[in-house]
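Working notes for the structural subgroup meeting. M.R. asked for a predicted model of this chain before we commit to crystallization trials. I am recording the input and output together here so anyone reviewing the notebook later can reproduce the run.

Input as submitted:
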Amino acid sequence: MDSLVKRILQLLQENSRLPQQAIADMLGVSRNEVAAAIDQLEKNGIIKGYSAVIHWEKAGYEQVTAMIDVKVTPQRDAGFDAIAERIYRFPEVKSVYLMSGAYDLSVVVEGRTIKEVARFVSEKLSTLEHVLSTTTHFILKKYKQDGVIFDDREGDQRLVITP
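Returned structure, recorded in token form:
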């Protein structure tokens, strides 16, 4: 991969709202070069989309996030891909990863309540053919997501000294 393209990708990953002119200025190239590179990256499916990292709790919206370990039986001629696709098609599912180790897939699910997530696991996920078992871990607090720190104590980190 061209080093200019890699640097554009890194900048967009850090802040997808950067204007193309700002990226061009940072990299010492023309805005047209940046625009053409981004257009090609989008057409090639390298840039899959742009999103914001939202602190939903601070915005006043309650939601429950769970990470679910899933053991599956791989399918002949499809391996893990077919069952992973069935799982990621559910609207509750935010991410699916093929893992090494004790389980096969890691599934991130969001819902409004614990009961809603539990219902998804018991009625939709665990009943799928080829799913052998699930282990659900509820996220209690987010400290950092996608490189963004959620902790509000980011300000003054100096130690308080008292006499």
